[in-house]
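Why does residue order matter? Because the sequence determines the fold. Keep that principle in mind as you read this record.
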Amino acid sequence: MLRCLFFLGFFCSQLAFAQTIFPYLEIENDQDFDAIEVESAQTNIALQAVLGSVETEQKFINNSDKKISINYIIPIVANQNLYYLTIEKSDEKIKLESKALLDIRKQAQLSNKKVSVNQDSSQRMSIELTDLLPNQELTVRLKWTKIIPQIKNDYQFYFPIQIAKRTMNFTETKRFSYQSSAYKPKNNQLTINILGNNLNAIDFLNQKFQSKKIKENHQQYYTDSWFDEALDFRYNYVNDQINSDVLMYQEANCQYILGTIRPPKTIDVEKLKPREYIFLLDTSGSMKGFALEGIKKMMLSVIDELNDKEKFNIYYFNKNTNQLAVSAVFATEENKQKAKEMLTKIKGNGNMKLNQALKKVNQIPVDFRFNRLIVIASDGRIEPNQNIHLDIKSSLKNAQYFVLGIGQQVDRQTLNYIGYTTGLEPLIIENESEIEPKLNAFQDKILTPLLRNIEVKSTSVALNETFPKNFNGFLSNQTLNFITKNCKSAQKPKIEITGKDGDYNYSKEFNLSQSSNDFAEALKFYWVKNKINSLMMEEERCGDYCRKTGRYRKEIEKFGEEYNIATPYNVLIESRNQNQHQISFHYDYDSDGDGVNDLEDQCPNEKGPKEANGCPIDKLDPKQKKDAVNLLANENMKSLKFAFDSDEIRKDDEKILIEIIGLMKKYDQYNFLIEGHTDAAGSDDYNLELSKRRAESVKNYLIEKGISSNRLESIGVGTKNMKYAECKPIDVCVEWKNFENRRVIIKIIN
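Structure:
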């Protein structure tokens, strides 16, 4: 099964929990919260271009005269990798090590040890700790890499509030009501180092931190103040001219090299070659409806933007392969009108013949006076065979490819496969509601002036392990990043970055002499993830034979252990310096970045909620879809609770109901039952009436916001089905469990 990381799109977690929570010590009981003090918290952050590195040390002490039950919680975030963890107290030390999943299962069977997945949620990793004794200290050291998302030429860095201790109450309910004085460390130190040439001023940090320039290309920000808010800022390195930068880490005989090439603030279109657009349009039967109509509208809009010195052609493929003209035509008003008339007549029918269309395109003689751009628009429901790969690869030097995946059932595997070949991530549109903004973004992307013939050259550095594998050599309105590993011995290694397009010329040479230890793990991680992505794609292309023989799996397992990371075939194992009676592994590998790890994800290459086992809801069969919507509705409702003896919706919980309303509007084929519940305080009759009022309160809110009353029913069940049935009488439970019992749940009733 294909499990595509698809780098730069690998890092885009959709989980608010994971995005906003810092790793923390979990204290089992609320009443013990104040007894454990955060003695110190030190965090050092290093950023350069797309790479981030974070090191943090937290020290805790139990100031009480009793032992306190604790765990350590690490949120799993798709855009970062934990590569170092130690937890120390007295004679106990815990760390995580990467091992091959198959080997772990075999070892456990041979020694009759119990294998457990020590991860109670896709969103977090839980480390079970023994009790913290009176006056005992605990030290946690964490290091992780963080790949920084790009928004055009800006890098956006987000860092959550460093709340180092929370309670199980929070873990279960996401409710955290403590003031900062309760979790603020006695001693705090936060340092941010941003490196790279041409760094633009960052007002956000200048206002909140002290700063000093370490070197010309190294700005440091530092503070011992505590922040009650997350850090969220952008930085970039763009100036008036095209520029580039290189970051290198030397380890033994090998170098890891990150290159960045940045466009100028503006590109003078008059200095560039004119464009030649070739559209390959999937008009098969599966493309009927909004997908085909949306693509046709977008294509016409692009063609309208062209001037009469530029060219275009249209190929469409279904049971036959047809075209607007024998070769590309100039974008005159007459030819634009012909394109409009042809597209108006096209209807979706038949099977796909993308191979034939690609062959025709590749047979067109290249006119080097033009920049050729090939736009493939399809739902991807085609066979990703070797011919497609070779056809695209053979023309990469002569054309830039853009891939648009659109339809009600997009085959992400195939589109990612094509994207892997072109070196550019496809844009995916699966919902009709997304079509306008995403098509506008795609149109903007393919219309942006670009600089071609960007090349990385070297006579002393081996570049055969460079990623993206098929480096395109074009520079548009977003910075290009490439990563390479070089183990070729050279006394004075150098690389040169060049570019030429029309009247634009660029050349810069870099001497690879200075190693950056700040980004050692980040550079290694960035490279190995791209390498694993490439191996997984090769395994998919090879097919069942390679999967059965483990040809690529064995190499991936080796990389996992060497770089101490989770992979599709590796897990992270707890290593303790005490006798261990079970093997606990933490599987945090999430190929599609949807927050559901691959061990649980039934669709590891397609984003979907955990309520649908990681699959897109719209792709499920009717029964599965109904169950998933039901689960998703109640997952959203988990945090919607009521104050004691109240049926009033809390202001803070209205945002939860807004999400429910969106779900109900999207899946308007379902009717819903709203069921009210109470805790065990009061008589059965009173609780039954209170639960009815709570359900009615939610029902009325939904009706006020536009949900038809015909789709909603409400009932109350009192204490009949309490979430925590053991909380009867009420005083035997901690308050958060009683709070959880004062709830409303939703069920689909048709």
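Residues 620-748 form a domain with the 60s Ribosomal Protein L30; Chain: A; fold (CATH 3.30.1330.60).
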